Amino acid sequence: MTIPAIQDYAFPTANEYPAAKVDWAIEPKKAALLIHDMQDYFINFYHPASPMMSRVIKQISALKAWAKEQRIPVYYTAQPAEQSDESRGLLTDMWGPGLTAKPELANIVASLTPEQSDRLLTKWRYSAFFLSDLAEQMMQEQRDQLIICGIYAHIGVLQTAAEAFMKSIKPFVMADAIADFSRDDHLYALRYVQRNLGMVSTVTESIAIDSLISS
Q1: Residues in domain Isochorismatase-like (predicted)?
Q2: Cβ of 99: how many Cβ atoms within 10 Å?
């Protein structure tokens, strides 16, 4: 099995998922931004002219620009272009050869190309924390909040948010800067985060909140 072709859908709205159980607010001095799996390979399952994906990329770009202004460290995840059967493990059973079959699509999408100061994490499983030093880097910089955007919401984004929570890192999932296989999958991830482990926010809300804190 591989990832199916993905059709555009209307983004979920706040009235469709429960209110957060916590009242956390993003604090730039304590936060890091994670741009999750925005590689050409994964983007290519959306239509080349997808308005939805164009919107997601624009939202991520805006979020990253804001993070840079606030001196928030920016992390990217990316799977290696070539992976052995051993390194892929059960991913092959679930998804087939994946990116290994199309190594030419390993780059981050051009409009989100990492800058020299950004940190690139090698992605081995759903969670960005698996076999990476993300938690250690955040701890060294005394950052215990992780703002998460990218794809896919109900897989890697959700698993990363869950592991962040279990490592005492507060996850903030950006509802309008993530995408998924379907609207149902997208909404499932948002509902799970709000009910169990973190907060759902939006790019607009996050930037506005920071403006209020800074004023």
Answers
A1: 31-204
A2: 24
Which residues are registered as beta bridge partners of 74?
33
Q: Is the domain 28-214 a CATH 3.40.50.850 member?
A: yes
Amino acid, res. 34: L
From the CB of residue 116, how many other CB atoms can be counted at a distance below 10 Å?
Answer: 4
Q: Which residues pair with 75 in a beta bridge?
A: 34, 119
Nearest to 151 by CA among 184, 177, 190: 177
What residues are paired with 32 via a beta bridge?
A: 146
199-201 and 31-36 as β-strands: parallel, antiparallel, unpaired?
Answer: unpaired
Provide block-wise average pLDDT over 10 residues at a time, the chain (215 residues): 88 92 94 98 94 96 95 96 85 84 92 96 95 96 98 98 98 97 98 97 78 45
Predicted TM-score (pTM) of the model is 0.94
- What is the distance between the alpha carbons of residues 210 and 191, in angstroms, rounded to a whole number? 24
> What tokens does 196 get?
């169990």
Catalytic: which of 37, 118, 176, 180? 37
Contact, 160 vs 128, CB < 8 A? Answer: yes
Q: Is 37 a catalytic residue?
A: yes
